[in-house]
Write the structure tokens for this entry.
Amino acid sequence: MRFLVTGGAGYVGSHFVYEAIRQGHECLVYDDMKRGHKEAVHIKAGLIVADVREQEKLTAAIQQYRPAAILHFAALALVPESVKEPQLYQDNNVGGMKSLLEAIVAAGAKTPVIFSSTCAVFGTPKKMPIAEDDPKKPQTPYGATKLECEKLLAEYATKHKIPALALRYFNACGADAAGEIGEWHEPETHLIPNILKAALAGETVKIFGSDFKTKDGTCVRDYIHVTDLARAHVLGAKRVTASGLKRDMYEVMHLGTGKGLSNLEVLAAASEVFGKPIKHKLAPRRDGDPAELVADPTRAKTILGFKCEHSDIKTIVASALKWQKKLDS
Ligand code: UDP
């Protein structure tokens, strides 16, 4: 199949492209390169450097490339930044989604869309694990913009018969086994890369919050290897392009392992993989961190037949460490 991949130079997008190409598919990356990296674009993928809000360019790309599905990863995804600059997130994320949907309408293509969503749409959920239809109350502008995008997808599926699948990720982490790509954010705010950066530099990583009502007082998250996320997207693409599909299909699925690890458990696993203890310091809570976020992955398993294969925490850390060493060198 042929895929148009917005944000295909970013973290999850580039891993999707690597996995899709490995499985024999073709990809055209569409990325403005403001946060993405040219080096992360697979050598066999095409590349258009443009903003998703440049609707005419997007329409032309859809008309010329005729993708079987569009994978929409392009978005801003730094929670603290979204708190400081909510309008920037509204413009990029919601504006980008609207532009993509209007570009599909203008191209007269009705191309199915797979959307990169997040468990941040839930805020602080009342029950664990989190199922797709549980109440949503985003706590940050980032989460709110992703929820708004989901609503737009549902609306366009009904009105314009553009099938859509929103995949809500829990904690994406790890790096492609080939060692060519990995997590590369500037600034880096995520736990696993920050632990490994500290380990490699002989520095101390801060663990934010130790007074949560969890097994050891630190936050609990559901860590899923980015290659598993990528594999789920390929399965999703097969679903949204299947013959006999209802054209007004709109579905949401959670991608996670269903198991939670505390920040201290992640640190312990990282120390084991690193081969010596990694120095840490317990620090005050970070604004807006919910105590626990764990997916109920049943729907993706039942409908897509999706099962994690790379998401054991030591496998995750080992792949991330290999990448971090390359990035630091
Ligand atoms: N965290 C931490 N130190 C860091 C980065 C993150 O203690 O340097 C904590 C963070 O406060 C949260 C957990 O690790 O409790 C996961 O954070 P991350 O930013 O990786 O993912 P999020 O769940 O916020 O999307």
About this structure: The pocket of uridine-5'-diphosphate is lined by residues 171, 189-191, 194, 205-208, 219, 221, 263, 286, 289 (CB under 6 Å). The mean pLDDT is 97.
